[in-house]
Predict the structure.
Amino acid sequence: MDCCALLAAIEKHCGTNAGYVKPSLKVICGDDVETIPAATAGVVTTALTLADTKTFFEWAVAQKGTLVVESSISDDGSTVEYTSTITVFVPKATGAKSDLLSNAAGDGKFVIVTDKNGVNWMLGEAENGCTVKPGMVANEKNGYPITITWTSNRLPYAYTGPIVL
């Protein structure tokens, strides 16, 4: 495909542009997401189909979490890979939180994070979920730093459909 056929203008942004992500993540096991509707112009507008009785779990996190997406290009220029990283902090260490985060660690998660401009970003896809890596600190900030990563051949899709909690 001719890459120039895919190029288009990006309009000038006027108005505010808030940084960071909102203090909440929506997390579900990837196996509980049955279908992800097709995106149009980078946006999924219809509901995800979840397995019977399954819902997203909402994780309250501290302010100033981040979503950063970096790209890498193969040596021959034929492949682009994107690594999306969400970094958040869950305050106040407790036994229950430690247990939950220990069980949530690992691959295969599907995550929706909302930036402070109100845009929901979906990370994860069929057969390619996110990896959740919790830690624990007891220093000036008692709690859990959490890093969520997802590697894909595309940037995250925006999501405007409903989120079942």
